Every structure is written in structure tokens, then in C-alpha cells.
């Protein structure tokens, strides 16, 4: 069977979604899970974009061993140098450089002639080859590029030493027929095209990203790019979970394999949703919570008689086991540690003890601890070191009801160690919490978005709160999960403030080359 490489860009194009801002610890956590998922390449960021991104790419490149780690760069030496600085520690250093090739992008955005775009691309590929054995070049807006020009520039970058050539449908404009035809045309026209990997990168502006990606595969693409949960710029990228499962379920038609460990899909999706704060729509293909729910009588009748009547994918295929994890208040450290390891967490003994203490506290209040609960507890412990607790919640007291004015009394330990208590009213409990916290913190905070959802099922499920705030010019997302959703709300607000303070404390200059 032909092998299709999976190139994940959750941490780069996915993070370009409006409102997503991952810190290094969160990126590292997702990168480890992407490695378990079995992606061939993961794009960890855009090193020249900020010192934070450069640091995250460097840490991921130094940690991940079973997937190739790459970083994005424009066609200039400064970006390529920044990428090398971050990626030199990788096992197989890989860089992804791009330049737009469509008439509109060349004329209006780059203000370059087609000849200048060819020259800049060739120079950048040759410069990158001095450092990187693996050089991917992308024709940004490739699907709206004049085909003969596309074939010419691809011929030149292949000659210059590119090892992968990517033809993105940057604005999600192509139809499956258009997009497939580009791959067929390049395969037939460009000399030595079989010496490089040909890659597809689709956006979902017209809802055709999955169909376009599959059309590229049918027409010769060797690699496909996308994100988990289909996050990404504007309407998002293609969801890799959809591509991987479509190729598996319809292998009779596509006859290719990806190397993706399908059983890790559910967990990866849940982790990305948890850390980005972007909920998965219930009817989302493959990973939505209704994807395996059968509601109507005729369907249920069919399912009972033969599940194949209505179920083309089983939840087990993507690791969505329905069997609840039997860990409860009588479980001990061994069982807890073993389960944590099975879930891919190797925590320091101190962090494991703290996670175990959190688990026991929860088990006292909740009948069944689900895998979703454990994922929240263990992930929070793993990222805690970087997520400094500068303001720390000490207590929340609420008085509310239909006949009185909601009032929150909140106690917080401030960065200077002082314990401070403030009370405030609001039109509802949540607003009274935000108002009381605003009196405690010194930053001017504007709430942009607030969401609560349950983690897992059942009336005693954990409540997760996500608060997106604007502080100065920075949009920051904070989150927390607790049994009491109002406690989670106060903690999510403080988590956002703490992240802003950590961000302020980071150096702003780019890291010098050594
Ligand atoms: C399709 C994609 O997803 S492409 C990736 C998009 N991702 C991002 O932009 C996220 C990270 N970006 C950033 O942090 C910033 O945009 C930076 C640090 C890269 C650049 O910031 P600035 O120097 O302030 O430039 P700004 O973003 O305003 O403009 C982009 C410049 O890069 C040029 N440019 C755009 N693409 C390329 C390219 N592939 N190669 C070389 N130059 C390019 C533009 O023409 C413009 O140049 P100009 O300043 O001479 O007009
Ligand atoms: C940088 C390229 C690959 C990109 O993200 C796009 O064109 O959408």
C-alpha cells in the first residue's frame, strides 16, 4: 500500500486561529501527544515570529524523537537563521519555507514580479540547504496560481534542492476537481518530481478541505497537511482525524496507509480542545460527541438488529472506549500511576503525588472518575510548572438567588504574598465573581468571552470554565476545571491574569544566533 505522510500543523497554522494562544508547556504537551498519534512531521511554530515561539519550537525539537519536527520561515535569511537556531537540536532538522505564487499575492502583497519570486525561492532553498537536510518549500496560494508558472517555479526549487514541495489551497477556493488536477499536472510536467514529496495543504473556507485533501491523494500527493479538530486560520484547516479515518474506512477505494495510530485520535482531539479552549461542535465528523449517538427509533432499532446498519465507524476505532475507567476513592497510588502511564504521562514523583491528592479529593465527591477527569488532573499537573500561580485563589463565597442581588466574596493571595478579600455584586453570580476579582488584580481587564462546559458525562462531571480576556493589547485565554463551576470560573480568570504576567516577564528581544 502507498504510504501517505501526515504533516500536522496544529501548533502553527492551528495556533493562527483567532483567539488561540498556547504557551510553551501546552505546546510541548500537545507535541508529545501528536508523537503518540504517529504524525510523520509536526510543525511546531514559526520561530521568527516571537521569542516564545522560538523557545517552544526548540523545546519540542529537543523532546520529540519519533516524528520530524519543523518550523515555518519566510524566504529570507533572518527567518531561516531563526528556524535553524530552534531546530538544530532536532534528530532530522526540517524547515518549511514559503512564498506566494498567485498573481494577486505577488503583485499586491509581495510587490514582486514572477521572476523575482522564482529567484527569492531558489535562493532561500539553497540557503536553507546549507543547514537543513530536509527543506520543504510551499507555493502559498498555489491553487490560484497560473499552472505554467507553478510548474516552472516548482521545477526550479526542486533543482535547488527542496525535498518536499507543498501546493496549498491557502484560501480554500479550489474544488476537488481543480485541486486534484493541479497534482496530476505537476506529476506529469515537472522533471524529477518523483524525487521529492508532493504535499497538500487545504483550508475549509467553502467546507471542501477534506474532499480536496482526498482528491490530492488520489492524484499523487505523498503528504497531507492539517490540524487536529480542524482548527486554523479563518474557517480552519482540514481536520487530520477526518482524513485519517476516511482513508482507513474507505481503504477499499484509496488503498493507502498513513501510520496514524487511530486509537489515539479521541485523546488527541480532547487534549487540543482542552488546551486551546476551542470546543468541538457536537456533530463534528469523527470526534463530535454526537458522532456515535443514535437518537431516532428507527435507527436504534436498526442498531440493535445489526450495528452495521447505521455505524460505519466504531467509537473503539478512535479510542473512544465506552467502558468507564474504574478508578475511585479506594484506589491506590500504584493503580493511579499505572493508569497515568498508560495514558502517556510520566510525571515527576512530586507532581504524581500532587495529581494523586487531587484525584483523591475528587474521588471523595464523585462516584466514578472517568478518563476525561484524569486527563484534566494529569495535564494540569504537567503544565503547572510553567503556568506560574502568581495570583492564587484562596476562597470563593457566593450569595445569590432570585430575590437578592448576587454577591461574590473572594479571597486571593496576591503576588506580594498579601491575602486580600473583596466583595462585589453583579447582575449574576459570574459577573459578581469577575467584578470582585477586578478589584483584587491591578490589571485593567476586559472580558471578551466566557464559556463553561462539562468534562465527561453525568451529573457529577467536572465543570470546565474558559475565560478570554483583553489586557492592554493582549488577548489571553485562561481555563480551569473543578467540580464547582463557579470556583473554576474564578480560577480561569486568575489563570489568564497569571499568563499575562508571565508573558510580560519574558524577554522581548529575539535570541541571538550562536
Ligand atoms: C498562509 C500562512 O499561513 S503564512 C504564515 C502566516 N503566519 C504568520 O504571519 C504568523 C507569524 N507572523 C508574525 O509574527 C509577523 O507577521 C512576522 C514576525 C513574521 C513579520 O512581522 P513584520 O516584520 O512586522 O511584517 P508584517 O507581518 O507586517 O508584514 C509581512 C512582511 O513579510 C513579507 N512576506 C510575506 N510573506 C513572505 C515570504 N514568504 N517571504 C518573504 N517575505 C514575505 C510581506 O511582503 C511583508 O513585507 P514588507 O514589510 O516588506 O511589506
Ligand atoms: C504557509 C502555508 C503552507 C500556509 O499555511 C498556507 O498557504 O495556508
Automatic annotation (TrEMBL):
SMART domains: LeuA_dimer
Oligomer status and interactors: Homodimer.
Annotated region (Regulatory domain), positions in chain: 392-514
Gene Ontology MF terms in the entry: 2-isopropylmalate synthase activity; acetyl-CoA C-acetyltransferase activity; manganese ion binding
Stored NCBIfam families: leuA_bact (TIGR00973), PRK00915.1-3 (NF002086), PRK00915.1-5 (NF002088)
Function: Catalyzes the condensation of the acetyl group of acetyl-CoA with 3-methyl-2-oxobutanoate (2-ketoisovalerate) to form 3-carboxy-3-hydroxy-4-methylpentanoate (2-isopropylmalate).
GO CC, any one term: cytoplasm
Annotated Mn(2+) binding sites: 13, 201, 203, 237
Family: Belongs to the alpha-IPM synthase/homocitrate synthase family. LeuA type 1 subfamily.
Annotated metabolic or biological route of this protein: Amino-acid biosynthesis; L-leucine biosynthesis; L-leucine from 3-methyl-2-oxobutanoate: step 1/4
Keywords, in A-Z order: Acyltransferase, Amino-acid biosynthesis, Branched-chain amino acid biosynthesis, Cytoplasm, Leucine biosynthesis, Manganese, Metal-binding, Transferase
Cofactor(s) for this UniProt protein: Mn(2+)
Substrates-to-products reaction catalysed: 3-methyl-2-oxobutanoate + acetyl-CoA + H2O = (2S)-2-isopropylmalate + CoA + H(+)
Domain spans labelled Pyruvate carboxyltransferase: 4-266
Organism the protein comes from: Bhargavaea cecembensis DSE10
SUPFAM superfamilies given in the database record: 2-isopropylmalate synthase LeuA, allosteric (dimerisation) domain, Aldolase
One example of a Gene Ontology biological process annotation: L-leucine biosynthetic process
InterPro entries associated with the record: 2-IPM_HCS-like, 2-isopropylmalate_synth_dimer, AIPM/Hcit_synth_CS, Aldolase_TIM, LeuA/HCS_post-cat, LeuA_allosteric_dom_sf, LeuA_bact_synth, PYR_CT
Record protein name field: 2-isopropylmalate synthase
Coiled coil: none
EC number: 2.3.3.13
CDD domains registered for this protein in UniProt: DRE_TIM_IPMS
Amino acid at each position: 500500500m502507498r504510504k501517505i505522510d501526515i504533516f500536522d500543523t496544529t501548533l502553527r497554522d492551528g495556533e493562527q486561529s483567532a483567539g488561540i494562544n498556547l504557551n510553551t508547556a501546552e505546546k510541548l504537551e500537545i507535541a508529545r501527544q501528536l508523537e503518540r498519534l504517529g504524525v510523520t512531521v509536526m510543525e511546531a511554530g514559526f520561530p521568527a515570529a516571537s521569542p516564545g515561539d522560538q523557545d517552544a519550537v526548540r523545546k519540542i525539537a529537543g523532546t520529540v524523537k519519533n516524528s520530524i519536527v519543523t518550523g515555518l520561515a519566510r524566504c529570507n535569511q533572518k527567518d531561516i537563521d531563526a528556524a535553524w537556531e530552534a531546530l538544530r537540536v532536532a534528530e532530522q532538522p526540517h524547515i518549511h519555507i514559503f512564498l506566494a505564487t498567485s498573481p494577486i499575492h505577488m503583485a499586491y502583497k509581495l510587490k514582486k514580479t514572477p521572476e523575482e519570486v522564482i529567484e527569492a525561492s531558489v535562493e532561500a532553498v539553497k540557503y536553507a540547504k546549507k543547514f537543513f537536510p530536509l527543506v520543504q518549500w510551499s507555493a502559498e496560494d498555489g491553487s490560484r496560481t497560473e499552472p505554467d508558472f507553478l510548474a516552472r517555479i516548482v521545477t526550479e526549487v526542486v533543482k535547488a534542492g527542496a525535498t518536499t514541495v507543498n501546493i496549498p489551497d491557502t484560501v480554500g477556493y479550489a474544488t476537488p476537481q481543480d485541486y486534484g488536477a493541479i497534482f496530476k499536472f505537476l506529476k506529469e510536467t515537472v522533471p524529477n518530481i518523483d524525487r521529492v514529496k508532493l504535499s497538500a495543504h487545504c483550508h475549509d473556507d467553502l467546507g471542501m478541505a477534506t474532499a480536496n485533501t482526498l482528491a490530492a491523494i488520489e492524484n499523487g500527493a505523498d503528504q497531507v497537511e492539517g490540524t487536529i479538530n480542524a482548527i486554523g486560520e479563518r474557517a480552519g484547516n482540514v481536520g487530520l482525524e477526518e482524513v485519517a479515518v476516511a482513508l482507513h474506512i474507505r481503504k477499499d477505494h484509496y488503498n493507502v496507509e498513513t501510520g496514524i495510530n487511530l486509537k489515539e485520535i479521541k485523546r488527541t482531539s480532547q487534549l487540543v480542545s482542552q488546551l486551546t479552549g476551542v470546543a468541538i461542535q457536537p456533530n463534528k465528523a469523527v470526534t463530535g460527541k454526537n458522532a456515535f449517538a443514535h437518537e431516532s427509533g428507527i435507527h436504534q432499532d436498526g442498531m440493535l438488529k445489526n450495528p452495521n446498519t447505521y455505524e460505519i465507524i466504531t467509537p473503539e476505532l478512535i479510542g473512544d472506549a465506552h467502558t468507564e475507567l474504574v478508578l475511585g476513592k479506594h484506589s491506590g497510588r500504584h493503580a493511579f500511576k499505572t493508569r497515568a502511564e498508560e495514558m502517556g504521562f510520566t510525571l515527576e514523583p512530586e507532581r504524581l503525588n500532587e495529581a494523586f491528592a487531587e484525584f483523591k479529593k475528587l474521588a471523595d465527591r464523585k462516584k466514578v472518575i472517568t478518563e476525561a477527569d484524569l486527563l484534566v488532573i494529569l495535564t494540569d499537573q504537567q503544565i503547572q510548572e510553567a503556568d506560574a500561580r502568581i495570583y492564587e485563589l484562596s476562597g470563593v463565597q457566593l450569595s445569590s438567588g432570585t430575590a437578592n442581588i448576587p454577591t461574590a466574596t473572594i479571597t486571593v493571595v496576591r503576588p506580594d504574598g498579601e491575602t486580600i478579600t473583596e466583595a462585589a455584586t453583579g447582575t449574576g453570580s459570574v459577573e459578581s465573581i469577575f467584578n470582585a476579582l477586578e478589584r483584587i488584580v491591578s490589571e485593567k481587564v476586559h472580558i471578551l468571552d466566557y464559556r463553561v462546559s462539562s468534562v465527561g458525562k453525568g451529573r457529577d462531571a467536572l465543570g470546565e470554565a474558559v475565560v478570554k480576556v483583553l489586557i492592554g493589547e493582549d488577548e489571553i485565554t485562561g481555563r480551569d476545571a473543578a467540580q464547582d463551576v463557579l470556583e473554576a470560573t474564578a480560577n480561569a480568570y486568575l489563570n489568564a491574569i497569571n499568563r499575562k504576567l508571565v508573558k510580560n516577564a519574558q524577554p522581548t528581544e529575539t535570541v541571538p544566533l550562536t
